[in-house]
Amino acid sequence: MAAMPYPAGTLTNAKGHLEVGGCDVVDLAAAFGTPAYLFSVEEMRSRARAYMAAFSARTDDFEVLFASKALPVTAAYRLFAQEGLSVDVASGGELTMALAAGYEPGRIYMHGNNKTDSEIELVGASGVGHLIVDSFDEIERCERILEGPQDVLVRVTPGIKPSTHSFISTGQVDSKFGFALEDGTAARAIERLLDSKTLNLVGLHFHIGSQIFEIEPFRLAVASLATLSGDWCRTVDVGGGLGISYTQEDEPPEIETYVDLKFEAVREHFGDDVRILVEPGRSLVGTAGVTIYTVGTVKEIPGVRTYVAVDGGMSDNLRPMLYDARYEAVIANRAGDEADHVVTVAGSHCESGDILVRDVALADPKVGDILLTPATGAYGHSMANNYNGMPRPPVIFCEDGQATIVVRRETYEDLLARDA
After folding, report:
1. Are the C-beta atoms of residues 407 and 76 closer than 8 Å to each other?
2. For the chain, N or C: smaller number of CB within 10 Å?
3. pLDDT tens digits for 197-236?
4. 3-class SS at 298?
5. For the domain that residue 382 is a member of, what is the CATH number?
6. What pTM value is reported for the model?
7. For position 356, what pLDDT does the model report?
């Protein structure tokens, strides 16, 4: 069994408290309140550097793109820009944040399966480097709105279904994303784009899904994509998808193994003269983040289960409810104590399904304890919501013992700010 999926460098200090990024999480709970998202800056940087080093050892002609839907926070955009990563955005909002964080427009790749007129106008006004086109309707909108020339990649659904949850599988034939390879739609889209006076087709893109451990499907997807290639194809974007450890049982591939497979597949099927792009999001930030809560209620139902209720839930981590995602948990103020009580960690929302972690072993949880769930760095903040009028938690970056609020906690006043 692997270790708990904490950020690298996490330890239990002399007080018995967990430390993340050199910061005592119990002290952070007292200073900033709970729930709160905590991030190890060093973990984020080290993951980015691992991707850059893995590609740099093989080629100079590559880009690593931060798939920013995983953590759309301007401080994260700035951090990954500093590390030399480009960025992919999937909405006008993410594009606005990337620009506000200082990303050069030429290093931005714009995704989206239904880009609006206003988003396309923003792309043109901002000088975004590449659009990933997703439908014939979108091609027509882009030609109507953009002055051009605008470099584009065409998104292809290669008909490959990886072993992951159906909600985060995107490369199969039945997908809302991209142009299907199997029925010739992708080939027709390429012909259409090659005739365009506004859109300059420079490459191909696929993304077959997320939280993937079995990486052989990536090789199959690259091979499928290569059947569409021509002299115009100078860039191959092989998407993201590398999974992370959410539990002690998870054993995802190493970044180097993942990069090796994708690099070798592209070189085998496309040759040496194409630029390789990869789009990690979850694997950059997932294990860098943890969420801390305060235990408010311990409710034992004899012969059934014990519920430990915390002051958050589906408003700050929707993944267990959407994907049946599994997490670990620990009592952070007694991290060294034996975890010998099997409980279910429940949220505080008015929903029976508001369950964060089912049947997890904790160290005799008590009211007032600080409970921590690791590996919440991806999609926790980005999917956070105001269900039951819950203000969204702050995002706090931790580095060398210093904690910095990069997104403040919402207030009740914020909940009223948009009401007419």
Report:
1. no
2. C
3. 999 999 999 998 888 888 888 889 999 999 999 999 999 9
4. strand
5. 2.40.37.10
6. 0.94
7. 98
Judge whether 350 counts as a catalytic residue.
yes
Q: Could you tell me which residues come within 8 angstroms of residue 398 by beta carbon, excluding any fewer than 6 positions away?
A: 20, 21, 22, 23, 28, 38, 39, 40, 41, 404
pLDDT band at 173 (very low <50, low <70, confident <90, very high): low
Give 134-147 pLDDT, tens digit per residue.
999 999 999 999 99
CATH of the domain at 179: 3.20.20.10
Q: In this structure, are 25 and 70 located in the same domain? A: no
Active-site residue, from 23, 142, 233, 350: 350
Mean pLDDT taken over the chain: 94
8 Å CB contact between 68 and 89 = yes
Question: Nearest CA to 282 among 240, 249, 219, 327?
Answer: 240
pLDDT digits (tens, 9 = 90+) for 339-396: 999 999 999 999 999 999 999 999 999 999 999 999 999 999 999 999 999 999 999 9
Q: Name the domain boundary from 254, 284, 314.
A: 284
Contact partners, residue 96, CB within 8 Å, separation at least 6: 122
Long-range contacts of 164-170 (CB under 8 A, 24+ apart): 164/209, 164/210, 164/211, 164/212, 164/241, 164/243, 165/211, 165/323, 165/324, 167/322, 167/323, 168/209, 168/210, 168/211, 168/323, 169/208, 169/209, 170/207, 170/208, 170/209, 170/210
Amino acid at 356: L
- Domain housing 381: 11-33+288-416
Contact indicator for 65, 277 with CB cutoff of 8 Å: yes
- Total domains, the chain: 2
